[in-house]
Amino acid sequence: SVVGPSGGPAAVAARFPEPQVTFGTPAFEPGRTGFTTNEELGAIVHGLARSAAIGEHSSEVTVIPLGASQAGAPIEALAFTRPVPPGSVAGIAISAATAPRRPTVVVLAAQHGDEPAGTEALIVLAQELAAGRLPGVLDRVDVVLLPRANPDGAAAFRREAADGSDINRDHLLLHTPEARAIAELMASFAPLVVLDLHEYPVGGAFTAKFGGVQRFDALLQYAMTGNLAPFVTKAAEEWFRQPLLASLRKAGLSVDWYATASADPADRTLSMGSVAPQVGRNAVGLRNAVSLLVETRGGGLGRVDLKRRVQAHLVAATTVLASAAGHADDLTKLRQFVDRETIAFACQGQVVIEAAPTPSEYGYTVIDPSSGEIRRLTVAWESALQLRTLKSRSRPCGYWLAPGQTEAVRRLRLLGVEVRQIDELGELRAEGYREIGREAVAGGPAANAGAAMRLKVQTQPALLDVAAGGFYVSLEQPLAHLAVAALEPEAPASFAANGVITDLASEARILVRPQIRTTAVP
Description:
Blueprint (H helix, E strand, L loop, with lengths): L9 H4 L24 H14 L8 E9 L5 E8 L5 E3 L2 E3 L9 E6 L7 H14 L4 H4 L3 E5 L4 H6 L20 H13 L3 E9 L3 H6 L2 E2 L3 E5 L7 H21 L4 E3 L2 E2 L7 E3 L8 H6 L4 E10 L6 H21 L1 H17 L5 E18 L6 E21 L3 E4 L4 H10 L4 E3 L3 E16 L10 E15 L4 E4 L5 H8 L19 E4 L7 E3 L2
Parallel strand pairs: 5-6, 5-7, 7-13, 9-10, 12-15
Antiparallel strand pairs: 1-2, 2-6, 3-4, 8-14, 9-13, 11-12, 14-15, 16-20, 16-21, 17-20, 17-22, 18-19, 18-21
Helix pairs in contact: 2-3, 3-10, 8-10
């Protein structure tokens, strides 16, 4: 049969015509065979920050340094921000110095270094914002773009960071400087909406299992993990996914739910991504933000269909920004409500320790690899739209950490979780943990690509005589569910199972509000 540009049949390639658009990024320069380099990206980001003057009201365009990668490459975001005008909010007079921050949207790309289309799309989006061509967005929200979260992976065109870590699985343990950079961005800007751009692999094991080639230009997902606020999920679906479906289809781009296949050749199940809390989109959801994932059809394709992939990301990103601008007031009210609700949940009810998707069936479509025709399949489907609780416990008021657990405190603070230090001797009614087993889990949230440990524990009543210098992590705070994911030893990426907390005897669940004096850890 006739061979198309992807190395497959021309009938398959015909399903993905090149859009009639022009993009001004280095990757699209005549004769270019690679993608925008780290050096080129840095020059573009700094150049845009120097040149922008936007809309009727001036906006600041600022480079946000977030540290360096493992190989020393800068990790930088570009912020388009505007102060709230002086006046009043809810009847309270404010000045420019005391004005609250406007709703912020963060868009990031290239956590995986071999997924280049998101970076190219964010360069184009930054150019559009800097030129004032999206004034309806910047009149309502601030925008922060992180075009390349994994510069070392991009330089080597490999998925992982320099040490072999998957950055997108490190958003709780924060082993890597790349994940810490993203955590700093989230803690600093407290975004109400986050969009994470990726590319999914084409062909290979999927085609061998299902007898077809992936047909969708874009796959969509939002945060789906235990302890998510239902109203945030509802907002993600109604205010964002539904407009995304409409915009992508209007642009002639095919779209469906995000789904992955396992490496087992005999397993013909599709799963709606990981529901573990350490995955990027889920960790963001536990910050009470609308957290969205867009994956374009690009993994393993090199430069094939690059313009179409970038166009899909650009349509998705501009749609998310428009939706956020249109719902700016609603998003602010939603965050305030969910934060208050999360705080009020402390000391009562149940908290999810681990959840799993629900087995079901789904009608999925693929492209016949020979004829290019659309084939419809019914597949086994692990649905994350409805999670099964595998393990839960009563929700404590907070957690105690022994004085020596300073590394755990440091990482909690990097996440934005408030930790207080105990200033005096006292007694706390608590539950301690006793280990009853552990097992290695391949591909888990370890610092490298190897196995992680999972713990099994029993709780036991305890009356703690706490000394000054220990720490208290209250669940009466908006990021309580991030704290739960880190501090419950049986959670999928817990600090105790991964050596951040060095001894189970050094943490405990606190069952009543402490009556001893504490101060915030600086």
